[in-house]
Each structure stands twice: as C-alpha cells, then as structure tokens.
Amino acid sequence: MTDTTEHDLPGTRQAFRDAIHSLIGRTRTLIERDNGATEPAWGDPLYTQLREYIAGAQGTGNGSHARSMPPVVLDAVDLCDQIDRTVRDWVSPINVTGTVGRLAWLEETQFRPQDVPVLKARTADLTWWAARARELLDPPRRWTLPNPCPACGTAKVYRPDSAGETVRQPALQIGRHGCECQHCRTFWPPERFGILAGAIGATPIASGE
Fold this sequence. Notes:
- By secondary structure, this protein is an alpha+beta fold.
- It folds into 2 domains: 9-59 and 67-137, no CATH class; 143-200.
- It is built from 6 helices and 9 strands.
- The strands form 3 sheets. It has a 5-stranded antiparallel sheet with strand order 8-7-6-3-9, with no helix packed on it.
- Strand 1 (27-32) and strand 2 (38-43) form a beta hairpin.
- Helix 1 runs antiparallel to helix 4 and helix 3 packs across helix 4.
- It starts with a helix and ends with a strand.
- Mean pLDDT is 83; it is low at 61-67 and 203-209.
- Residues 141-201 form the DUF7340 domain.
C-alpha cells in the first residue's frame, strides 16, 4: 500500500493555517449601501471579540470576576480557557507568549509528513472553536435532536438557562455551523451531517431553542 501522508501535507498544512486565521485573523462581512451596492467591512478577530465580550460582561478589562455572569458568558469564559490551555500545550516547550502569538507562530511553522495526523486533529479543534465563538457572539437559531449522542450515548443534559435555573434539554443541539453534543462536546460540522444522520438513524430534527 502506498503511503499518501507526504502528499497530504500541503493541503493539510493549508487547512491548518486557514483554521488558525479563522480564529485570530480579521473578520470580514459584507455591508449593503443605500444604492444597493455591497462592500466588505473588516472587524476584530473572533478570539479578540470573545475576550472583549467577556471583559464587558464582567465589567472589567483585566479578566477578574467583578460581578456574577449569565451562563452564556460563563460558556465564553470556558471556551477561552480551553483555547488558551490547549494552544499553550501545542507550543510547549517553545517560549512564545499569548494565545494569539502562539497561533501566529504555529501558522508559520514548517511541518513534516508525519505531522499530518496531528495537524488534522488540531484543525478540527480550531474549526470547532471558531464555530463556537460565532455562536456565542451572535447566537443563531438552534434546534435539538432527541437521539442519544453517537459519541458518548448521552440523550439529556442539565444546564442553567438565562435566568440561572437548571433545565433539562436534549444533548444534541444543531445550528447553521454544525451539531454539538452538550455533554461530551463532540462536534459535527455541516459537511459531516450525513455521517451524523447515519449514526442516529436520520430522525427528523425537533424545533427548539
């Protein structure tokens, strides 16, 4: 059998760099002018927006917990902590400071063919982080699936709602960016919906929040 790992390296490396850029690169949206013309508008990176969102909700700019925060902000804090810890592990023991600096360093790093599996796994992490950040910053309409998660078998989870009350809800939540298990955090991007449908028996989606 021919080893295709070496041939996979250029595309895998580019996908990894694109995933990094989706998290720490400037965001781009299209705005429509009064005359009907559209033009691009550039904004802060998702990671920066997430940090600013947390700081604004906390009432501080230094990351301290100045006041109690609603669950959605706690989710943002958890996401940032996960990103920071994981990226720090990726570059250890390289002495590069800050998550943005570490990701920028990785973006310029030259990799070997044997690094392809690791790069693919890291690309999946980065893709999930960016999708999750978008959902926290601009919550989309979500639906739920009644089926147990194919990865962990969990069907229901207990989470605080916007009022802080504990409520039961289906573990699988799906939106335009993908489907995520609220228990084990396994994530299926839209291009893997077919695989997910096969795993759960293609049960129709139930409307929900």
